[in-house]
Each structure stands twice: as structure tokens, then as C-alpha cells.
């Protein structure tokens, strides 16, 4: 992995993202550029599947930085996200010291809470120096974590440091590139948002989504790619539990390409809807007249 310099302008950021197959709107490229130049975390919010997580992956590859990912979930705590002590190794060290007659409790306490007994989780790993430059830290789907963990992040996002009671304060020599994503299943507290630059990642317009499909599914025909995008854009106007994101558009286009489909027909759409819609109620709604209506809209010249 080769270390690359940070983009020197918004246009350079757009070019960098495009070179890795990520076709971003200028507004997203601008806030990403500012995040890198200002050393501020970037908070990306939007529906699932619109490309929030992909930004971190693209930056990691394009800049030659390590990608450290923290996948959030309900019940996530410090021991899973930051650090925990290797208690088994500590116990062995204590017994060996006792067997050797070492009774200096203060020294023993200092020894067993040394760096070698610490198991470092993603947030602590992101604060360590790296010869390739500060890593890209992806805190993914923060809205899935509890509010208590969200509050814990404030020190890290403000000062890029964590305080460990038995060990002291660990501070990053250079701030990592931090990307935080949320699908907005709950509101994130203002205290965290204030520490970040913010951007809402929306569904792309038809023209940009078509360009994305052509980039990510190079073998697809021009006719089929246009029909796919029109169909997906029309679906997003329906009252579904979960509208398809860009990720689902790419999956569906890939599936149709693998089946050597030349155009959308009721049969091929019905057979492959599972690549596009992920809830049975939504698939059921796409039967009969609704399917015929959307299909006609997508395939009309």
C-alpha cells in the first residue's frame, strides 16, 4: 500500500473518488475534502445502501491508509470498542511473581497493567502511530449503539485521546481520518454532531445512478442499464418499507447481467426481485398491476 498525499482541492478530491469508482456529488466531495484538510471527523447520515460506508473504504485505498472499522451494535461497550485487559496473562504474571518471592505490590500492579497485557480494540488501534500515516477510522452505523457509548466517543472525537484509569492517557500523534455513519434509526446527540462536519447522503439522481451502474457493472448493456435505473427510481416513489439503495441497484444489475438478460420483462423481474427488495411485504406489493405499471414506466422509450 503506497501512501498518497491528501487532495489539494475539491476537484482533486472528486478525481480521487472517481478514480476508485465512487461517483460522488460535488457537495459530498467538498465536505470530505474539508474533513481531511481540517482534521475533523465526517458524520454521514442517510438511508442504508447509499454509499456512506464506501467513502471510508475508498479513502483508505486511495490514500494508502489502514482501514480500521468499528461496527456498532446495541450493547457495544468499552471492552469491545476500545480496550480490555488480558486477565489470563495478568493472573499468570501474578502467580509467577509470587512464586519468585516478589512481594512489591506497587511494582507488581505497575507491571500487570503494562502495554503488553492490553488487548487493543478498534478505537485504541486508530490512535496508534502508523508508518503509512494516520489510519481511516470507520465508526459504522452509530445509531445502532447505545447513547452511553455515543457519549464515550466525545473525548476521542474532541482530542483524539482515551483515558485508561490503570494506564493513563493515550493520545494520537496525528488525528486519524474519522468517518461516522448513521442510518438515522434514532437521532444522534448534538454534542457529537458539533465535533464533526455533517452531510446527508441522499439517493442519487437518475443520471448519476446510471453512471454508477455502468462503472460498477461494466458488462451490462446500455439498454438494460437504463431500464434498471428507471425501474429503481420509480420504486423509490412507491410506499415501501425499505426502498432500494444504490448497493441494491448494483446487485440487481449484476444479477441481471449474470443471467444474460437483454431487457426487463415481468418474468425476469419477478425472478430477481430478491436482489433488489429485502422484505417480503415489499416484494408482495410488487405483484400484479403495480409491477406492470413500474415496468411500463421503466421500459418505455
Automatic annotation (TrEMBL):
InterPro entries referenced in this protein's UniProt entry, alphabetically: AAA+_ATPase, ATPase_dyneun-rel_AAA, CbbQ/NirQ/NorQ/GpvN, P-loop_NTPase
Signal peptide (residue range): none
Which positions fall inside the AAA+ ATPase domain? 38-216
- Can you name one GO molecular function term for this protein? ATP hydrolysis activity
Classification via Pfam families: AAA_5
Q: Which residues cross the membrane?
A: none
Write down what this protein is called: MoxR family ATPase
